[in-house]
């Protein structure tokens, strides 16, 4: 049905793996060419395969495809290697040698079925998997400028939502799997890098081989108490072949612009308004304050990876350097990541050892703390938004033009008169011994130590507003912290097949401990501002007791025992059961240990006899699973009866100031795990030799014993809140993944993938046996001053994410809001009471869609990644604060004077539903166009590709703020598009990669 | 041989694993940055630190953000927080305070409730620890216990005045949800406690500054008796006089020579202060009166090391009641042009007029200047907040005398208090019995945007209105006004600025909704 083709599907994939097998010099002196011919058959039934793509390795321009009888003819150079690929079959490389007539058999790929999926403490063939696990391989990653590991798989895993809420070069993506699952704990997934806990930045994106996501409880339960938010297993690139000697270099350069620039009143607009009788101050100038604080950032990234060794001793090394600038002046960050992975095996591969070192250094030299970029630049951004556009940046003497005003500071001076240097260093060492005393049995001992530390310094000069407003005469601080984590895991694995039975048995023990220490000191009132933070003692404030100094230390331990049994009969009926028993030092003695079981079953319908006739069906598998996971308390000491000496609780006693000796909290020795129970049912399918494939999953999760800061009366309790296990939360959802290969012809291949997910969330209760909440809701979110009210309310029996607000229905003749009161009557806002607030909209999208396309045409490759979210609302802070012309002391959006109901707004800033907008969007996010260079361009070069890429290119939305995706989506105030923020950006990238 | 090797290796591995199992299931939490109760035995030298939290919550209670000060002043007729150009509406919370349209969700009453009960719970906890012997006291146990009970009574007095019907809890170990008591029961409890502990309280006025001593307890009791009719329906004028007299006769306190001395940043030296909430810019932060009242432009005037926020100011009708020669006007309010401390240039001019609650300019309204701002003041003043001072005791006695037909005696005391305010015109200091029988000078009525008073009610009909005026002038911006307005029957009847009378039940604040939700034994106050 297919025409012969000269190009193979996924060249990059083939190149990557084939180099491991073949060690031929890529080019030699121009050799003689000759003609060969042959036939390609299916290894299964020996039937001829038409449309198989055949190319000569190292030269994409030489190739053909088999005809209807599976035959081909091709002119090849001497010592050529052919690469054969065909959808539904495993790609194969054939060394031609001196043959001229070949018969080649291709084995059915069952692409997904033989694909290996990383699961907890091991791997499993995709066909055997009975849980909801997503696996994304390197060749399917998002390409171009990628922020961190999560962005590699953005939009590719149904149910895993990944967004970029901030344009800051120092911030990460925001990830969430299957809804909000904790109140006080975290909903973040557990991230393991080669089995060792880490983060999205632990290794460079270029250094990642695959990302596997354990989505449902039955898959994640083997990780017990850390797995409620799901588990993301990152596997680094390794020298897996028998031998391979390769060097790869890649780089890219990018430029960024603000995603959408707010249109503010200009100096000329001010003067026009003054003519109209509006009370603005005209300082005579025309300053575009946003331009004054922004730069044109150029960022670059370099990556070098090399593989070497032989089948018993080999290594992988990589060095990654990345230097990113942000759109705001003096914001940026550089990262260096180095990794060495050494493998050695002995005794005929019975003993395998591995040593891995990852060292990374993140350096920031700029105006503000990298951890605080969003807040600090957010405030500067606010100052640029509100500053009088007729004012000037500097006076004629060259000093900053400052004005006295309420939170009104020259934004440019805040950038230039503040300095910050931060260094984060991490050294990860891990080693493992894998010993197989007999066939089918192996033991593995994995130990790792991860040490990281930060050293930060910050200062402000004499010209900073700290000195102008607070007479601080230069400020400086220094802070440092150190974290030391140890992990020991011992596992035993037994796998046995007899007849049609196959089973594996895993048992293991895990120990983790972590010690965290920190110290900080600040000072001000310096004789000079030239010290920065390098001579803290020279300041005067610490000695006077005004500046702060602090230190703390804590430690936690986590121990677990786990086991897993898998069984399959005739590869048709699949079963898995696991259990983990885990204990944490963070809970009271009575409740330290918890048990987290899981079980799942699968039925490969397509293997049944009655399906045999259905040739179009490649795979149908039904799955169902159940699993329990936990969530740990997120701070130490919660179950302890302890006190603190606290200066804030001090008083003037006996003629002098003494600190107060106060209980640290309401004591609750009964604290225990949050427990999530999840049922997952799904189907995996593949049709037409897997040209259509995918899966559908339905899940229902219930989180019980939620850790919650329960409001308690004082007395009898010591403080107003007490952390207890109360409350239940429910998440239900549907996830669909559909992969298509719509076109596969000689020159053109188009792969298309859809993801869809929907989640329904409900807070079921906020009580337990001991504590009955009369108050069946809690408020979340905050507008900030000068509005100062909460934005969301979470109520028992209702979904999370709803706004709680005065519902505006119009504007009266005086320009004041009219709102709907609790009895449904329309009243002026002046008469509104807090009781009139009502639920309005929801900040969590109902539908999340992704559509990823990759097209290969000859040597060109094109990727287009799109995604969208639907059925939700965003609270537009920008509009709430800057779309109101009342306060003439601050600048505002041009649209502030647009009439609403025919009247220009003449009322104070207020939180009303008018600012809650429909957030629906469809984003053409990443478009990457690549070209693979002819291979004999440079001697010794095996592969070379150049590309250009655009990120966050086009957003189709009615939302009027900067970026409908640039909002917080986790926590209990989702859909808040904050006033102070580091706006998201649009990125244009160009890069190249070469392999030798 | 080969097999044996394998066995050895397996054995070794298992042994190794076994060893780690054994050592690595120890989940005892090691505590570094907190003091574990089980490891800590306090000694007598820790006593001040143990007692301190009983007082520390009073700092945020009194002058904290939307604290007791705002609760007493913004509900009354002298101070308002109108919307400023920077948009400080805060969801209408200040407007609701002024117009008495608050609900059980209003934060200011909730704040007062929670801070008061924090002191009460801490007092109960420490009392329980003392009686259990957890805190070893060899001497002075009675005095410490008396002091803790007196502070607890003080906190209950605040609740009695603001919320009325609150639960009385004295047993720290009782973990049942507390039962609500009536206002009368709370009154009886506070009076009983103060009378009981009085003999054991320290008589030393100088070593107990900032703490509850015998005279503080007596002055407090006098104040409670003065308001007894409001609390219980039964006046206690004679008892108020008796308690006031004891303080007067003790000779421990006197009026400071200058009115402003009572409120300076060194007012811990004042001879007049009986019970203060001490503040310190380093050790006891939280006096933010200057930050809330001053416009940002005022920063360079003192100069200050902090940029103020610009908010509350005087009600023009209240300013109009002052005698032009009363020095307390200038000692209490910041008025007119404000000059840069170094250049002398005028940076802002505060005018008396305030157009409305909804819209003002930054120059509208006189600002609170009673608590003198020291040069280079930070966001937190050193000035202590005088809750009970000698002038209080004198005026309590004067009012009680006036109300029991001894107007002449009352007039003498009032005149004595006025003396230091009329140094330029001593004759004006004298007040006669006839004066005190007059109504108030306050031109009650609704203020229009142009400053004119519409819907005029005046103050002539207020019984002993002149006494109310005297209290106003002496105690302006000291968180007295709401209580005084209630006692003189003004609070529920008169209009001032943008306020019109609401239901009489507004004299008590609602039980906070958050507390009703937490404790099902609580019933809302009538009228809410």
Automatic annotation (TrEMBL), chain A:
SUPFAM superfamilies per record: Carboxypeptidase regulatory domain-like, Porins
GO molecular function: siderophore uptake transmembrane transporter activity
Gene3D superfamilies for this protein: Carboxypeptidase-like, regulatory domain (2.60.40.1120), TonB-dependent receptor, beta-barrel domain (2.40.170.20), TonB-dependent receptor, plug domain (2.170.130.10)
TonB-dependent receptor plug domain: residues covered: 126-231
The keyword Signal appears for this protein: yes
Limits of the TonB-dependent receptor-like beta-barrel domain: 362-857
Signal peptide interval: 1-31
The UniProt record lists the keyword Nucleotide-binding: no
Mode of membrane association: Multi-pass membrane protein
Assigned GO CC terms: cell outer membrane
Any one of the GO BP annotations: siderophore transmembrane transport
InterPro entries, A to Z: Beta-barrel_TonB (IPR000531), Beta-barrel_TonB_sf (IPR036942), CarboxyPept-like_regulatory (IPR008969), Plug_dom (IPR012910), Plug_dom_sf (IPR037066), TonB-dep_OMP_SusC/RagA (IPR023996), TonB-dep_OMP_SusC/RagA_CS (IPR023997), TonB-dep_rcpt-like (IPR039426)
Subcellular localization: Cell outer membrane
Keywords: Cell outer membrane, Membrane, Receptor, Signal, TonB box, Transmembrane, Transmembrane beta strand, Transport
Protein family: Belongs to the TonB-dependent receptor family.
Protein name (database record): SusC/RagA family TonB-linked outer membrane protein
TrEMBL record, chain B:
rRNA processing keyword on record: no
Record keywords, A-Z: Cell outer membrane, Membrane, Signal
Organism (species): Dyadobacter luticola
Domain RagB/SusD: 302-528
Record localization: Cell outer membrane
Presence of keyword Membrane: yes
SUPFAM superfamilies linked to this entry: TPR-like
Protein name, per record: RagB/SusD family nutrient uptake outer membrane protein
Cited CDD domains: SusD
Domain SusD-like N-terminal, chain residue ranges per copy: 96-226
Similarity section: Belongs to the SusD family.
InterPro entries found in the cross-reference section: SusD-like_N, SusD_RagB_dom, TPR-like_helical_dom_sf
GO CC term, one of those recorded: cell outer membrane
